[in-house]
Amino acid sequence: MASSTSQQEFDYLFKLLLIGDSGVGKSTLLLSFTSDTFEELSPTIGVDFKIKHVTLGGKKLKLAIWDTAGQERFRTLTSSYYRGAQGIIMVYDVTRRDTFTNLADIWAKEIDLYSTNQDCIKLLVGNKVDKESERVVSKKEGIDFAREYGCLFLECSAKTRVNVEQCFEELVLKILDTPSLLSEGSSGVKKNIFKENPPQNDASTTGCCSS
């Protein structure tokens, strides 16, 4: 069989990105979705990457899912991975208030700063609902945040797999409903997602040595 037929294995390739504080369960959520298993994982170093083939909305899709490290020291490394993403999943831990407040303080600002698709679909995910007795962030707070920032919203548990598949399915179905993102995800279009940085304003000509 001719190798060129490999192009026909899927209708669209979508780039998805998982972001959020360290320890909220991004890697566990991804593992639960891609391999139907649960593991307690150590924090991601830099960036992890997994491929998942799904059929949704009558289309064969190849999902390239990037799992970014939450620690601040990796921020500059992970910023480039926002480029070209059709879907971004913001994850927080319903048992840790700081991971929720950092959504507005850090992660929503990062999307505004680095995302290159203005129609990019955002999904807010409250993870670890299996620890209901330890919950400190209410579902209503999650809904209100999602409404304010224009996100889809779901609560899930990577451990029990409650709503894990729904998280990715809802995001992908919304992407399929967005024509501008479909053209970007067309399997025939090859794009360099690591574009050159825009030129910096040259401030070196300003006077700095007036006595």
Description:
It is a lipid-anchor. By secondary structure, the protein is an alpha/beta fold. The chain has one domain (12-184): Rossmann fold. 30% of the residues lie in helices and 22% in strands. The protein is built from 6 helices and 6 strands; from the N terminus they run βαββαβαβαβαα. The chain has helices at residues 26-35, 75-78, 97-114, 139-149, 164-176, 179-185; strands spanning 12-19, 47-56, 59-68, 87-93, 121-127, 152-155. Strands 2-3-1-4-5-6 form a 6-stranded mixed beta sheet, with helices on both faces. The protein is globular and about 45 Å long.
Query: How many helices does DSSP assign?
Result: 6
Strand/helix succession: EHEEHEHEHEHH
Q: Any guess at the CATH architecture?
A: 3-Layer(aba) Sandwich
In the residues, how many domains can be counted? 1
Mean pLDDT rating: 81
Distance between the terminal alpha carbons, to the nearest Å? Answer: 76 Å
Q: What do we call the CATH homologous superfamily?
A: P-loop containing nucleotide triphosphate hydrolases
Lateral strand order in the biggest sheet: 2-3-1-4-5-6
Kindly state the percentage of residues in helix. 25-40%
Number of strands: 6
Quaternary structure annotation: single chain
Report strand %. 15-25%
Shape: globular
Topology-level CATH name: Rossmann fold
Low-confidence regions: 1-7, 188-211
Major sheet, described briefly?
6 strands, mixed
Structural class: alpha/beta
Biased composition (Polar residues): 198-211
Subcellular location: Cell membrane
Region (Disordered): 192-211
GO biological process, one term: protein transport
